[in-house]
Amino acid sequence: MSDGECTHHGWIMRGRLRLVLLVLIGVFMLVLSPSELGDESTYQLVSPWGACQGFTVETVAGAVNGCTPLPPGMYLLPGEGITLMPWYYSAAANGSIVLMADDNRDPTSGDQGSIWLVKPDGSSLHLDSNPWDFAPSISYDGSKVVFARFDPATSSSDIYSVNADGSDLHLVVSGRGTEHLTVPSISPDGSAIAYWCGPVSVFTAPAVCGPLTDGSYRTSGVMRVGIDGTKPRMIAIATGAEFGQDGPAALSWSPDSRWLTTDGMLGDNSGTQLQLFKYRTDGSDLFNNLDPTRQITHAVAPSAPVLPQFSPDGSEILYLDSADGHGNQGNFSFLIGVDGSNPHQVSLNPDTTCANGSCDPPSYGEFIPTNGTPAPPPALVDATHVKVPSVTHQTLPAATSTLKAAHTRVGTVQRASSSQVPAGRVISQNPTAGATAHRTTKQGPPVALVVSTGLTRTVTVAKKGVGSGTVTSTPVGIACGSTCTHAFAKGISVKLVATAASGSVFSGWSGACTGTGVCRVAMSQARAVSAAFRKAVCVVPNVKGKLLASAKAALKAASCGTGTVSNAYSSTVPAGYVISESPTAGSKLAVGAKIALVVSKGPAG
Description:
Layout: H1 3-24, E1 44-47, E2 54-59, E3 64-69, E4 74-75, E5 82-91, E6 97-102, E7 115-118, E8 124-128, E9 133-138, E10 144-151, E11 156-163, E12 170-173, E13 179-186, E14 192-199, E15 221-226, E16 233-237, E17 251-253, E18 259-268, E19 271-280, E20 306-310, E21 316-323, E22 329-337, E23 344-346, E24 353-355, E25 358-360, E26 366-367, E27 385-387, H2 396-405, E28 409-416, E29 426-430, E30 436-438, E31 446-452, E32 456-464, E33 469-474, E34 479-480, E35 485-489, E36 493-500, E37 504-511, E38 519-522, E39 527-535, E40 538-539, H3 548-557, E41 561-568, E42 578-582, E43 588-589, E44 594-600
Parallel strand pairs: 4-5, 28-31, 32-39, 41-44
Antiparallel strand pairs: 1-2, 1-26, 2-3, 5-6, 6-7, 7-8, 9-10, 10-11, 11-12, 13-14, 14-15, 15-16, 17-18, 18-19, 20-21, 21-22, 22-23, 24-25, 27-30, 29-31, 32-35, 33-34, 33-36, 36-38, 37-39, 40-43, 42-44
């Protein structure tokens, strides 16, 4: 089997699995009062789940207002002939409904079938007979239909458009044999199409979807294109985390054309959770796929909210979940505020009955848009190029907030003395204020800052002598070694410590300090200090007449070692004291040279 065939069958299995999950996955949702939401009594829907042999026209409360029949020879239930694909339909303000027939007989097919249009007067039109079509959607005014078409040869899919009278069927967006395009949705005013783009194969996942405003491409995301297929633009990278290439189950425009709602995944490859999201349609949410403010639901497994759509007034979102608030299994409808508030179950099918924890038939529908003159989508913005704000003279925390608000971030931070800028505030930035920076992630491009340490005074350390060693400071700044000059804040006290290297001896300070101890300098003015190091040699000290322990200590202090120790009688040197040493005192020897000692045993006899 080829890679293309493997991907094709994998896509089909995922398409079938999506419907199975809607039936099997449960959710526990608190049922709240809808008092703070829109006027739900005005919402009209169509649903294929009622007693009508077609689409029941009803209110959110379940009051039936009419029936739009299916095309002749099409049925709701399998076994009677060609059936309706129950999750793939869309309604217009004039009552027309576009739907997908379950008439693809290819054994490798998934959720694909030909596209039909039905009207309230009972008439119908077969808009496209290709059995590989899927995901149809109709414009608000009912004049145009868009849908996706699967290509079994490449496992890619394309977006097509057709007029509601069946004329002008044409390709709008090509998947080019590498992209999976799905869930096309026409903007309320009919000027644009939103759709999902992902890779054909999740295993290769090339960056084929786009472009972004910088000309780059990404693996997957929500696209916006003109109704004529011009100016395609990615407006949201992924939906949630979205690990599969199949994309969301739905995209829905808000009535004012400013938002899209969709479902997507959160989590990682070891475990994912379906959630609902909303994104701006102008592209300003390009990098906000995981922004908490764009997440509507906060479902916990086994919850699985899908198929979201805006209510006709734009105040709420209708979605499908697979358990009611009492734990009954099935497919149930919920409404939730666009801000994620007040989720509550609605019964769209008065014929639904529950027994033994299972409910049938499902309760779900598609809103009928209200008549009116919808606003066009807002102009697209460039989210990949940002103007760098000015942060000079701000504190570092304030600069951090300012940069974040402008979709940039703090880069490297250096410190420098300034007589003009107070300590802790920004002296300069790079890029400079007003420059255009390239943004490729939500965090944004870095801006390097130089932050003032205020008025400073400089400590300069010089090392002298033939020995070696280091000088370090407290506060940190001098490490000489390598850094022998540093500017410290005016008025503080700086402690300098000299440490001799192996084979060397620190012989003392000069300049601003003297002696061989710790050097402390007050930073009322610039300070210069020299540290002298000499090579360590063994200059034999005079240890005659010393106790043996004292003699050994003196030899060690002089970088000498104790050699052989012998004993002899002496009538003049008390027992335990050194009688003589060899070599003699004053001799200059290599470091660690051994000095032999003769120690008195006291008088003989």
